[in-house]
Amino acid sequence: MSHVPIVRVDGDTVYSPIHHYHHPGTGRVIDLVLTVHFGESDYYAQLRKAIDSRTAAGAVVYSESYKPKHTKPTLTRGERKLITAMVAEAKTTQARLTLIGWQIQPEGLPAQPDWVDCDLPTIEVIRRIGVRKLRLATGIARLIKGRRITTAGAKKVKQEIAIAVRLNAKAPRKRKSATEKIMLDERDAAALQAVRNEDRDTVLLWGLSHGRNLHTGLADLGYTHTSTDWYRVAADPIIARYNRPRRQSAPDGNPATATAAETKPASRRPIREHRP
Questions:
Q1: Which has the closest alpha carbon to 44: 80, 7, 16?
Q2: What is the pLDDT of residues 63-83, one digit of tens each?
Q3: What is the spatial distance between Cα 166 and Cα 12, in angstroms, rounded to a whole number?
Q4: Residue 1 within a domain
Q5: What is the pLDDT of residues 100-142, one digit of tens each?
Q6: Does residue 204 belong to any structural domain of this protein?
Q7: pLDDT at 262 (0 to 100)
Q8: Is 269 domain-assigned?
Q9: Tell me, what DSSP letter sits at residue 187?
Q10: What does the DSSP assignment read for 29-96?
Q11: How many domains does the chain have?
Q12: Would you say residue 37 lies in a domain?
């Protein structure tokens, strides 16, 4: 099965895609909007414009969860502390990014009343993975230790973006952990079930890491990938530093004959950057 790129880096600039699909039998159109959860303010403004143009034409938006979904009385003490920490971490990150003119997705591209949350319930994810494992997997245990609102804190967020871009650009591992299967595979299955249950044109609004599963699932449902539009997320030297090609050791052990590791771009077509 063919694959589509889920992220692109050009120098110090990172781009995320909107992949377009068409079902030859029904004529239905799916727009897969893959987002980075932190970025420049203009990034989210451009995504908003693209999504609004589709909903104006009659499409419905199905998104991953923007905020924890749970019933408060059912939470244990550990679950409540984890969800509180998740909310606090998001607020701290937004405050840090405000210092450099960036935003987190819920601020730059807030969920609208007519959007449908098709994600697994937060409490189900927490209980199936476990509070301790989820704290470690999301980095919450580390992040909530330092909540100082400084440009240094914003730099750390940039580093996290750069590392996430690098990881998403790599080919996926053949074997996934139990946590990854829940955080990715099962949540993506919920999104694809929403597609099956819907007849209207649809916008799927999900993070980068869900792109490969969702593309494969749409292909299995008979959808054909027709085109891709790229949107500038952000530009910063840190992005280039973490995503430059690595050098390979020379076969003869001579450093002088070492070459840069081959980094095949998903496509050599020019990037169409969407700007106002």
A1: 16
A2: 999 766 555 557 888 888 888
A3: 12
A4: no
A5: 889 999 999 999 999 999 999 888 888 889 888 877 766 654 5
A6: yes
A7: 35
A8: no
A9: H
A10: EEEEEEE-SEEEHHHHHHHHHHHHHHHHTT-EEEE--SS----GGG--HHHHHHHHHHHHHHHHHHHH
A11: 1
A12: yes
